[in-house]
TrEMBL record:
GO terms for molecular function: monooxygenase activity. Residues 3-91 form the ABM domain. PANTHER family: ABM DOMAIN-CONTAINING PROTEIN, QUINOL MONOOXYGENASE YGIN-RELATED. It comes from the Bacteria. It comes from Jannaschia aquimarina. It is an enzyme of class 1 (oxidoreductase). Pfam families: ABM (PF03992). This is Putative monooxygenase. Keywords: Monooxygenase, Oxidoreductase. Its EC number is 1.-.-.-.
């Protein structure tokens, strides 16, 4: 069963450009990963510090492999101290 992920990221004030640039670097390599069906980055209109990834994966194991990928480690290192909050919600499509 496909897994839907909502990743909610808030940048620290004044760090939103850095966070945006680093998040954008994740898109191409992630879309090329095995099991990635959808990986879309969004930014809130009312708060430029607020980003979302809407993701769909073939299954949870492939998503977990994604989370261990080198480009995720690079993102985490590049944005250390620049992210105010990060929440991941695992979901399933019901309709």
């Amino acid at each position: 069963m496909p897994l839907t992920i909502i990743a909610d990221i808030r940048a620290e004030a004044g760090r939103e450009d850095l966070v945006h640039a680093e998040l954008a670097k994740l898109v191409a390599p992630t879309r090329a990963e095995a099991g990635c069906l959808q990986y879309d980055l969004h930014r809130a209109h009312e708060d430029g510090r607020h980003f979302f990834f809407y993701e769909t994966w073939e299954d949870r194991d492939l998503w977990q492999a994604h989370m261990a990928a080198p480009h995720i480690a690079s993102y985490l290192a590049a944005t250390e101290g620049a992210v105010a909050s990060f929440t991941v919600t695992e979901m399933e499509r019901v309709a």
